[in-house]
Design brief:
The complex is a heterodimer of chains A (363) and B (128).
Chain A lengths: L13 H23 L4 H20 L3 H20 L3 H55 L2 H13 L8 H32 L6 E5 H11 L7 E5 L5 E5 H17 L6 E6 L7 E8 L21 H8 L5 H11 L3 E7 L3 E9 L12
Parallel strand pairs in A: 2-4
Antiparallel strand pairs in A: 1-3, 4-5, 5-7, 6-7
Helix pairs in contact in A: 1-2, 1-3, 1-4, 2-3, 3-4, 4-6, 5-6, 6-10, 7-8, 8-10
Chain B lengths: L3 E5 L3 H13 L3 E5 L2 H10 L4 E4 L8 H10 L8 E5 L3 H9 L4 E5 L4 H19 L1
Parallel strand pairs in B: 1-2, 1-3, 3-4, 4-5
The chains are: A alpha+beta (363), B alpha/beta (128).
Chain lengths: 363, 128
């Protein structure tokens, strides 16, 4: 269950509410009693005696703190009453204040417990979800291993196994399908982990031209398109190299998949020294994306003109979603400009100064 | 002399496939579908590396690893967990065991070759 549907507003925790109400009640109680006591020395000194124990209790025991504060308030009132007059009036004020204090404490404790229950239920559900995802991933991936392995064995030595040329082509197609299946499972898994779990960034300073060169080489992209890399030789990012690599790889694969012959891809650094962000632009000469579909392409399982394009290019729309989530984790963004039949440019914006690490929440 | 790699895996098609792949990569494959008998064999004749499945019977990969590390003869052997369970990567990272790696199924022929070179290379460098 989404915590925003809980009893406390999202972003405000129960200890914060408890402390706020206790502190407010304390100030009201002390002010009223001190005024009524006519500035009696006892009335002025007594709050100081219990102020620190109450604060300590509130910060360390948010639930019990409510009751400890209540007991302290009653004690204070009783002691103040003993030293001040008129006794009847102050007693009445003290009793009313104490009752109000404990009522407020009771409500806050109830709300806190309810909110805590929701948090625990949410955590349990997340754990269950992770367990299911993990098991499903295991069951889907395991059978792929012998298929992939045996195809590799046959295709590594086609002559030795007496495989004819036509059969070899068929086996290669089977292997491509298995590799695609593996990629889809991995993407779904990655997406699920991003949605449900805490992803931490592993920051380091790395060379961007080296990373791009390695991605182009490992992905075999140079064989599929003309790749122009226009990056300063000394360009470095302070970011999570693996995740930025995943993003650039997704962008490259996406640009190549949607470009047209002769395929031309350009990777360029388009930031200036004054900019707060480093910007990498990846452009293609592809089919382009209609303006009204630009927002949709980052949604999971969405492709602009999904029906025909996904069939034509055999892609599922997850990689851009994952890429955007990774860049948002860095405090950055991805923008896209496109002209139908004129090509598309994706620009990755990453803050030059490392942002405070936080748990990812998609809004 | 060929370096031997012990594969402990209860899935027979994968075990048969690993035998061919490892032989083709120039290693001497040693196969076991049972963790308990594999432990006994490893103790008398330790391999250069163990490729270990995690979800298997009668003992799972983690139990196997505990027993392996508890024995002074086998405690320093390099182990690569060969699994399709994605959560194993995070667990292995937390364990901070320099002689423990992970390889996520399914792997291609070239990925397996690269991973074995990397783990065995690291092992050789450590030994020096």
């Amino acid at each position: 269950m989404d915590l925003s549907a809980g009893v406390l507003p999202q972003g405000i925790s129960h200890p914060e509410v408890s402390r706020f109400i206790i502190t407010l009640s304390y100030i009201v109680a002390v002010t009223i009693t001190t005024i009524l006591a006519g500035g009696s020395p006892a009335a002025l000194i007594m709050p100081l005696l219990y102020f620190f124990p109450v604060l300590y209790a509130c910060y360390h025991f948010p639930y019990r703190g409510i009751w400890i504060a209540g007991v302290c308030a009653i004690s204070y009132e009783l002691i103040a009453i003993a030293f001040t007059y008129p006794v009847v009036l102050l007693s009445a004020v003290a009793v009313v204040q104490s009752i109000l204090f404990i009522c407020v404490g009771s409500v806050v404790t109830h709300l806190s417990a309810e909110n805590d229950h929701l948090r625990k239920a949410d955590a349990a559900k997340n754990e269950l979800r992770k367990g299911v995802i993990s098991t499903v991933a295991h069951e889907l991936r395991t059978p792929l291993q012998p298929i992939m392995g045996y195809l590799n064995i046959l295709l590594d030595d086609p002559d030795g196994y007496g495989i004819a040329k036509g059969t070899e082509t068929i086996l290669n197609r089977c292997l491509s399908c298995v590799e695609r299946e593996r990629q889809i499972i991995n993407q779904m898994l990655e997406f699920s982990v991003l949605e449900s779990g805490r992803i931490r960034l592993d920051y380091s300073v790395f060379s961007v031209p080296d990373l791009v060169g390695s991605l182009v080489s490992t992905g075999g992209y140079a064989a599929q398109a003309e790749i122009n890399v226009d990056l300063p030789r000394d360009l470095t990012f302070n970011a999570d190299a693996v995740k930025i690599g995943t993003v650039i790889d997704s962008m490259l694969a996406n640009s190549i998949a949607f470009s047209r012959h002769p395929r031309q891809i350009r990777i360029a650094y388009v930031s200036s020294q004054d900019d707060r962000c480093d910007r990498l632009a990846i452009s293609d000469n592809g089919v382009g994306i209609p303006g009204d579909k630009l927002d949709e392409i980052f949604e999971p399982f969405q492709l602009a003109d999904a029906g025909s394009l996904s069939r034509k290019y055999e892609r599922i729309g997850l990689s851009l979603s994952i890429a955007r989530k990774y860049i948002r984790l860095h405090g950055g963004t991805i923008t896209v400009k496109s002209i139908v039949n004129g090509g598309t440019t994706f620009t990755i914006h990453i803050p030059k100064v490392r942002v405070q690490e936080k748990e990812y929440h998609e809004t | 002399m060929k370096r031997s790699i012990m594969v402990v895996e209860d899935d027979q098609p994968i075990l048969d496939m690993m035998e061919i792949l490892l032989r083709r990569l120039g290693y001497e494959p040693r196969l076991s579908s049972n963790g308990i008998s594999a432990l006994a064999e490893i103790k008398t004749n330790p391999p250069a590396l163990i490729l270990l499945d995690v979800m298997m019977m009668p003992i799972n990969g983690w139990e196997f690893l505990d027993m392996l590390r508890a024995d002074p003869v086998t405690k320093d052997l390099p182990v690569v967990l060969f699994t399709a369970h994605p959560s194993v990567e995070a667990t292995v990272a937390e364990l901070r065991d320099p002689k423990l790696g992970v390889l996520l199924k399914p792997v291609t022929f070239s990925e397996l070759a690269r991973a074995l070179e990397q783990y065995l290379g690291k092992e050789t460098a450590t030994d020096r």
